[in-house]
């Protein structure tokens, strides 16, 4: 699909040059030499990106960006400015621009930015569409993601929600197992009954049995009243057995029996209770390995592993990272009564490259911290804690190629930027030493820093 770009500049020479260049790159360009023509061009609703000059005769480019934000939020904006003061940049980004470039700029750099903002815009739009369909179907508005990994989870949730099949959710810590368990329950016919969670790792072993099955008064010391267990509370609904991999062998036997017979006896009672519960279990342990090591019963494993859903770690679905960041930025800004900050493209790149060992939970916490500590509205590389600057320790990080393709030039360009920034950080911004580290001539390095406007990253 051709990118639809609106170029707004009151200098005819610049306008013409940009139009020619972007058309050559395969974009469909609409030129506009003033504010009013730009507004007119936006009316069709097809424009994906507006490249806006800061000065438009007697009008202001920032004003146009604000107008676009209001009337055509699906359009991304990049501001072009003649003088790259930080104030202008902040104003542009506050108004909702994706980024800004300082004239004169290299066309390659501009193209890079254009492609990035269009990729981002398309991912956002795809997520919105996906949600629109899903909202009708199941109201999964809390689950953010467009990666193939997340899409196949949506599919599975869709398929299993309305059955009574036992589901086993597998995935590293923080990948969203609980979120998916909720999605399954709330999209099932049991949604008007309760979802009862039990954290098998948090409850001491000797209490877990009565927690699950209940007890009668006097069943053991301390059992002063009769208590209903979680199984019974979940009758007609769903029982979520979280951290199932941490259940003691003794309880595993009891649980297996209940799952087979759908009935159990509360502790100390001769009465047997029959229940109708749907089981969803979750663990971050490798249960197959635990079965081999004989810490988890094989028969119980097969009982639970009817429909396994494996949630991939975040590092295997990097396309979701920018969307998750936006999602949490929006949420934490709202909760803290702050205006939502914008993340510079360089900073977003760094966050996307990080390996996120704590998965979505780690990302959620990182964004909360950024929102709380931030006083202005731009989150740049310098705001990131140290750990993000090293991309998780790998030199070659794996690249995900989205369905709509990826720009070879951008990826290579980003990688070069990262190498340069890392060398600079390592040498406390000493260009001589950084050049030596990268086995480059100093002049080559300085030239690259200038051309890529990396100084701005450093300063911003
Ligand atoms: N795809 C997602 N979209 C939005 N938020 C998500 C997503 N996945 C996870 N989260 C959020 O990340 C946090 C961790 O998710 P959750 O508690 O479901 O993970 P978990 O797999 O159960 O982790 P653990 O194994 O540590 O219990 C939650 O706050 C959850 O809302
Ligand atoms: Mg959990």
Properties at a glance:
47% helix, Helicase, Ruva Protein, domain 3, 19 helices, five-stranded parallel beta sheet, Rossmann fold, binds adenosine-5'-triphosphate, 460 residues
Structural account:
The structure is a single chain. The protein has helices spanning 12-24, 35-42, 61-71, 86-94, 107-137, 148-161, 177-186, 205-213, 230-233, 249-261, 287-292, 298-304, 320-335, 345-353, 359-373, 408-426, 431-437, 442-451, 454-459; strands spanning 4-8, 28-32, 49-53, 55-56, 59-60, 76-81, 99-102, 167-170, 195-199, 214-215, 227-228, 238-242, 263-264, 273-274, 278-283, 307-310, 342-343, 378-379. By secondary structure, the chain is α/β, with parallel strands linked by helices. It has three domains: 4-128, Response regulator (Rossmann fold), CATH 3.40.50; 157-311, P-loop containing nucleotide triphosphate hydrolases (Rossmann fold, 3-Layer(aba) Sandwich); 319-459, Helicase, Ruva Protein, domain 3 (Orthogonal Bundle). The strands form six sheets. The chain has a five-stranded parallel beta sheet with strand order 2-1-3-6-7, with helices on both faces. The protein has a five-stranded parallel beta sheet with strand order 9-12-15-8-16. Strands 4-5 form a two-stranded antiparallel sheet. Helix 16 (408-426) crosses helix 17 and helix 17 crosses helix 18. The chain is elongated and about 90 Å long. Bound molecules: adenosine-5'-triphosphate and magnesium ion. Adenosine-5'-triphosphate (ATP) binds next to helix 7, helix 13 and helix 15.
């Amino acid at each position: 699909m051709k990118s639809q770009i609106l170029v707004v500049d009151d200098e005819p020479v610049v306008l013409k040059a940009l139009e020619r260049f972007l058309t050559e790159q395969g974009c469909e360009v609409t030129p506009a030499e003033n504010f009013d023509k730009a507004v007119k061009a936006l009316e069709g609703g097809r424009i994906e990106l507006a490249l806006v000059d800061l000065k438009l005769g007697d009008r202001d480019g920032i004003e146009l960006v604000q107008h676009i934000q209001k009337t055509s939020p699906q359009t991304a904006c990049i501001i072009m400015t003649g003088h790259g003061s930080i104030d202008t940049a902040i104003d542009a980004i506050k108004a909702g621009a994706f980024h800004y470039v300082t004239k004169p700029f290299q066309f390659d750099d501009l193209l890079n930015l254009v492609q990035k903002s269009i990729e981002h815009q398309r991912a956002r739009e795809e997520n919105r569409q996906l949600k629109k369909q899903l909202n009708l179907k199941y109201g999964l508005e809390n689950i953010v993601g467009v990666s193939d990994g997340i899409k196949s989870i949506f599919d599975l949730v869709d398929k299993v929600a309305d059955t009574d099949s036992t589901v086993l959710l597998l995935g590293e810590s923080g990948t969203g197992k609980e979120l998916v368990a909720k999605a399954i329950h709330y999209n099932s016919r049991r949604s008007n009954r309760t979802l009862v969670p039990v954290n098998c790792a948090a409850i001491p072993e000797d209490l877990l049995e009565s927690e699950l099955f209940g007890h009668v008064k006097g069943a053991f010391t301390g059992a002063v009243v009769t208590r209903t267990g979680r199984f019974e509370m979940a009758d007609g609904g769903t029982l979520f057995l979280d951290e199932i991999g941490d259940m003691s062998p003794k309880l595993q036997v009891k649980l297996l029996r209940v799952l087979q017979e759908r009935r159990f006896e509360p502790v100390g009672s001769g009465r047997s209770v029959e229940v109708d519960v749907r089981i969803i279990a979750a663990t971050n342990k490798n249960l197959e390995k635990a079965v081999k090591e004989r810490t988890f019963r094989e028969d119980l494993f097969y009982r639970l592993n009817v429909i396994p859903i494996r949630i991939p770690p975040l590092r295997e679905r990097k396309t979701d990272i920018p969307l998750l960041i936006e999602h949490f930025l929006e949420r934490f800004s709202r909760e803290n009564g702050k205006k939502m900050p914008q993340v510079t493209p360089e900073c977003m790149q760094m966050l996307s490259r990080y390996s996120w060992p704590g998965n979505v939970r780690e990302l959620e916490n990182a964004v909360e911290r950024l929102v709380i500590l931030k006083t202005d509205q731009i989150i740049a590389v310098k705001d990131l804690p140290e750990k993000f600057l090293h991309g998780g320790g790998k030199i070659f990080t794996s690249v995900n190629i989205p369905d709509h393709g990826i720009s070879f030039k951008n990826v290579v360009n980003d990688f070069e930027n990262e190498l340069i920034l890392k060398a600079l950080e390592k040498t406390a911004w000493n260009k001589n030493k950084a050049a030596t580290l990268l086995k480059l001539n100093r002049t080559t390095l300085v030239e690259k820093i200038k051309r890529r406007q990396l100084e701005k990253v450093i300063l911003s």
